[in-house]
Each structure stands twice: as C-alpha cells, then as structure tokens.
Specification:
Number of helices: 19
Strand content: 5-15%
Mean pLDDT: 93
Number of strands: 8
Distance between the termini: 42 Å
Helix content: 40-55%
C-alpha cells in the first residue's frame, strides 16, 4: 500500500548491499507503480544474491546452509537426505550427496499482498481525478505485474471488480506451457466466497492457485466475522467439495482462455487450499493438514516475537514479549470501519489518548491511503484524520440528544487511529531510518492467539515449535484453537447485541438469529469431530459451557 515506505526501504537496502539507487519522486509519471516494481526487483536481487552465497557455503554445523536443513520438518525428503548425508562414512559419497543437496534447495516465493478494496482514486497536480488505472490498488497490481518476480499476488479484504478485470492486461498471469510466472492467491472467508470469486476469474482465463482461508476473528489485523460461520465447518465444506470446485474451475478457465485465443492448460494446474488463524502448536497444525486435507497451514502473529523474521522495533517487541492476555483486544481503530485486532500497550494507542486529552483528537493525514469518507468534503478524507474528527464531533454536539449519547458517539469517533503512519513506523525505527513528519508512534495488530506466547525467540526456536520439536507456549491455560475461536465469536455476538441496544431492528434481529444458528451448527460439527482429535486436547466441558453461553446469549437477545 505505502509506496513512500517502499521507496525508503529500497534506498536503505540498496545502500546496505551496495546496489545502485535512483530515487523515484512522487512527481514522476506513474510513480506509485514504478516504486513498487523497483522495490520488488531489489528484494528479488537481494534474495538471489543471498541464496547463491548460501549454496556455496561449507556443509558445516553453524553455517546458514546447515541451518537451512536443520529448520526443515522431520518428514521432509530433503531433511531425510540431509541426515543420511550426515551419517555417511565414505568421504567421496558424502561429497556427492552434499552436491545433490545443494542442487535440491530453492528459495521461498516472494509473495505480495494487496488489500483489494483499499483502492482510492488519485489526482493530478491540478486536483483533477486521474484515470482508473492510476487508483491505489490498480497501480499496486501494475507495480507487481511489471516486476521480475515469479511468485504470487494475494488479494485480501474483499472483492474489487475493477481490480479483477485489470489483471487480464498482464501476460504473466496466463499459462505458457502450463506454467504461470505469476500466480493468484485469494484470501477467502468461506467456500461460497471461493466459488464465486474463483468463477469470476476463471471466466477471464485466470487461474486461482491457492484459496487461503482465514479465521474470521482469531487472526491479526482486520477481522471479518462471517455471520458466525466457524473455521471448522468452513474447512469441512472445502474438504468435501474442493475436487468438484477444481474440476469446474479448470473447465471454465480453459473456456475463458480459448475465448481469448490463448493457449489452454493441457493438464489441471495445482490449486492449493490453505488455512490460517489461531494455530498454536504442532498437534493443531498436523490435524488441519491431515483431517481437512489442507496443502498448508499459516502462522503469522507468533513471528512478531522473532526479530530475524519481522521488523518490530525493540520497545514494541519487549511489550509484546511481556504482554498479558487482556492487552490484545478487538477495536474499531481502523478508518475502514472494519473491526481491527489491536494491542493496548502500543505507543500508537498512547499517542491517540494523549491527543484526546489535549483536546486535539485525530491524526494529521499525510499519506491518505485509508481515506474513504465524503460526509463533509468533496474529496475523500480519512475518518481518523483531525479534519474529519473535528467536523464530526461538532456535528454530534449540535444534535438534540442526551449528553450520554453524545459522549458515546464521540468516543466511537475518537477510537479511529492512523494506521498509515502507525503500522509503518516500526520497520523504520528498527532499521534506524528517519521517520517522516516525526510521527514515530507504533501501531501493531497481532491476533489474540499471541497471548499464549511470551518472550523473544530465534527463527530456529519458532520453527521448531511449529514442527513439534520444542514447546514455546507460555503457562497460560490455552484451549484448543476451535474453542478459542468459538469464544471470540460468542463475545463478538454479545457485543453486537449490546451495541444494537433497545432500538434493535427486525433486520438486526434476523442477523443475530442467523449468527447464533451458524454458531450452533459449528458446535454440533465439533461434537461429531471429537473422536478424530486424538492427541489434541479438546475440552468437552468448555464446549458444553460455550453452548450454554450461546443459548443464554439468545435469551438476552429475546429480552431486548
């Protein structure tokens, strides 16, 4: 999203690696796309260089080449070959095996994410709107499409028809001898979403290589509560129907390619189904892979505690490492109006409160990446901006309502925070890069599952935890990931009912009933799943108590 940040980082990396650097100014034509392309090409160059150096290292304990194989899971064919090489006594055979191992390794894919619906228009120097292809999301896609990467673009946070149509213009997304230089990954909330979006793209001759399912609430960043559909039943629907979906999309995609006069797939391309959100240990990881027949399981928030893997500044890292469960909470801090998993102890949250205390709520708005409101202005502005909050609070104070109602509405407005600055400052602080506008407060958005991890860890430690070699979970009593998610959904439903209050409408009643019904279906599904859990602690007492809580939540709604 933030091409200014990418330009700063490209300058930093080029200096660090002694690459030539030419600054791309905002005044250049198509500067956003150019900056993104240049940044991604720099990252690729760094990875290629580092990987060549890695392959040429000595096979000796402590080298990065040795660590590469140490990190692999025990059942990996490469890990098994590595251990055979280590046990080999014949020196010439050992060297031959080492050369085979060097040739077998490969770098990971440099995948790129675009929040599909964050697609603001841009304006020229005269203030006139630019053509659609210069909007934020389309420019970002063009920047990726024109890069040298052979990887995947991930579309998250909703469906954007304009963006999906724009993909058709780029050759790398079409097959050449069954090979795709650039692949499409869709983050989806459920099976229906995957089917609808997959068909839209397939009709254009575009193949979805991975449907990435994320828990609606047990995840980092923005949350999407899926009307009470729980992760388990969603994964079950994919398990039962993914072969049929694959076949239908394959036929549809080939028809789309044929209609365009393009080469068709001659064999069914790989289509992964993966999941993420709230996974906490190897037993859960393996259960998702085996029972639901997934192609991969994602881990995100725990890596915030791994300085080798993520750019978290020292102060925020220590706060996360020593945080309590209550420090992670669901907020309405996002200007997008979507619930947002937040961290109470962040300096960004401190800054937001300080501004309110000083009588100047809201943020100066420099980047405008999340602007989406035209309530008071002709051009879109951000709801976390000082400009918007000042105008909105004046409007609220002028209304003929109780002081209590006014304060509640003002609190809701002032909860909005500047994510553009907050989410980017950590990487700048960690790498000692000057922070623009002296705004160095950090916002960070871990999933609630991070409450069960403490301390600062090495990459080796975190990977070893994921693969079951060690245990990094802290001393908190951690329920199964499905129980955790169910609790989050019931808490969310209770909050919704409370916010609707006495003036609940018929539409809201129907929403609550649907939400509650889906949660009950999820509970019933987990009961049928109990015999399959084997090594995974799945506390039936917790499940039963949550079912009772759900029933009481339904009674609460009826009383209102």
């Amino acid at each position: 999203m933030d091409d200014g940040l990418l330009e700063n980082l490209r300058s930093f990396y080029c200096h660090q690696h002694k690459f030539p650097f030419h600054h791309i100014t905002k005044k250049e034509h198509d500067s956003r796309a150019k900056r993104i392309t240049a940044y991604l090409n720099t990252i690729k160059r760094m990875v290629d260089q580092q990987f060549d150096e890695l392959k040429n290292l000595e096979f000796a304990e402590g080298t990065d080449l040795w660590k590469y194989f140490e990190l692999l899971p025990q059942n990996s064919p490469l890990k098994i070959s590595f251990e055979s090489m280590c046990a080999e006594k014949d020196a010439s055979v050992k060297v031959q095996m080492q050369n085979q191992l060097r040739n077998a390794i490969s770098p990971g894919s440099i995948d790129v994410n675009i929040m599909a619906k964050v697609d603001n228009p841009t304006y020229d120097k005269n203030g006139d709107p630019m053509p659609d292809e210069f909007s934020d999301a389309l420019s970002a896609l063009r920047g990726y499409a024109q890069s040298d990467l052979e990887s995947s673009i991930i579309f998250s946070a909703g469906y954007n028809p304009r963006l999906y149509s724009y993909i058709e213009q780029f050759e790398d997304f079409y097959p050449e001898n069954n090979y795709l230089r650039k692949k499409i990954i869709l983050k989806v909330s459920d099976y229906r979403s995957a089917m609808v979006q997959g068909k839209i793209l397939a009709k254009k001759g575009l193949w979805v290589s991975d449907f990435r399912i994320e828990s609606g609430l047990n995840c980092g960043g923005h949350t999407f509560a899926t009307d009470g559909l729980l992760l388990g039943p969603i994964l079950e629907e994919f398990r039962l129907h993914k072969k049929a979906l694959l076949a239908e999309l394959y036929d549809m995609c080939n028809q789309g390619l044929k209609a365009k006069g393009r080469k068709e797939f001659t064999a069914v391309p790989k289509q992964k189904v993966t999941a993420q959100g709230g996974v906490g240990n190897n037993d859960e990881h393996q259960f998702l892979l085996s029972y639901f027949e997934l192609d991969g399981v994602g881990w995100g928030s725990p890596f915030l505690l791994v300085p080798e893997a993520t750019n978290v500044d020292d102060r925020t890292l220590q706060l996360l490492a020593t945080a309590n469960k209550e420090d992670y909470y669901l907020s309405y801090a996002s200007p997008l109006g979507v619930p947002f998993n937040n961290f109470r102890k962040s300096s960004g949250e401190e800054q937001r409160k300080q501004r309110i205390d000083k009588g100047r709520p809201g943020s100066p708005c420099y980047k405008k990446l999340l602007s989406n409101n035209t309530e008071f202005t002709e051009k879109i502005i951000c709801t976390s901006s000082r400009q918007y909050q000042d105008l909105k609070i004046k409007q609220i104070k002028a209304q003929q309502i109780s002081e209590e109602e006014k304060q509640q509405m003002i609190d809701n407005i002032e909860e909005k925070d500047c994510l553009c600055e907050g989410l980017t400052s950590s990487v700048l602080l960690k790498n000692k890069i000057p922070v623009p506008h002296n705004i160095n407060a950090v916002t960070i958005c871990p999933g609630p599952n991070l409450a069960y991890f403490s301390g600062v860890h090495s990459l080796k430690e975190m990977v070893s935890h994921i693969y079951g070699r060690i245990n990094l979970n802290n001393k908190l009593d951690r329920p199964n990931m499905f129980i955790n998610e169910l609790q989050l959904y019931i808490d969310y439903l209770q909050r919704q009912i409370s916010e609707f209050g006495d003036s609940i409408s018929d539409k809201q009643k129907k929403y609550i009933e649907k939400f509650k019904s889906n949660l009950q279906l999820g509970i019933n599904f987990y009961k049928t799943l109990l015999p399959h859990f084997n090594n995974i602690p799945f506390n039936t007492l917790q499940l039963n108590s949550l079912e009772l809580l759900l029933a009481n939540t339904g009674h609460l709604c009826e009383e209102i």
